[in-house]
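Morning run. Coffee first, then this:
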Amino acid sequence: MNMMINKSLTFLIALIAVLTVTCQPKKQSGNAGLYFKDNLIAWCVVPFDSVERTPAERALMLKELGFTKFAYDWRAKHIAELPVEINELKTHGIQLSAVWIWIDSDSLPGHDNAQIFDIIKSIGVKTDFWIGFNNTVFEGLEENKKFEKAASMVKALEKLASDQGCTISLYNHGDWFGEPANQIKIIEQTGSDKIGIVYNFHHAHEQIAEFPVLLPQMLPYLKTVNLNGMRAEGPKILPIGQGNAELEMLKTLKKSGYNGEIGILGHVENADVRVILQGNLNGLKALLTNMGETEALATYK
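And here it is:
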């Protein structure tokens, strides 16, 4: 009798163990959807479109291409249309994920940028401002003074953004301010834990070999990575899939656990931006096929 009870007890314990394992939800990586279509941001669109689409035409184009997120860059002539742009994006179910801000003087935020901030505030949109600096802002300064000035200006911009419920991220546009190590040090000097980094492949051809080392350093701050074809010798703008380094960089990015957004560029002068965006989407799909990213690829249909 005791033997039968022991066998039954052993069986029951084993059954509970099996059920416990099989009923557990499958643990997925925090970046499982990294390359899914709904994690892509259309970027470098407005000023580079030879068709010069209206806000309504642009929002429709983005929807037809399958984008659900959009980062807004502009020239002075586009600012008056920004309220219409925001409304059209909303109508077509597209999130305004980011807005470009270019600082080229000590005057913060500067006339055009001030208009952008005011429009975003008046409409009540919550977004991320991508902050780039012209190198002339820091020319002639000793290294420690560059950091002091950059941290002070970035902190002021963060305050301006946070007052309207928005955030900022530092954008690598080359030169001193675009160096990831410098951006990290600037963020640390501000004392803020809310400032992010946007890393652009097309401004980082010279960092290809360093990427596996730079990425872990940037990771705590990294919000967006904008893709591009990558070759050490350039050119700066190259369709995704036509370089010789971006495949390994995408693998490194996925392996790192990065779970931010992925940007797709329309950055080609005097070209139909729809054609450029579609070409980059096709190039990304080819790389994902090579990587065996079947779940991600299923979202592009």
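The chain has a mean pLDDT of 91. Good start to the day.
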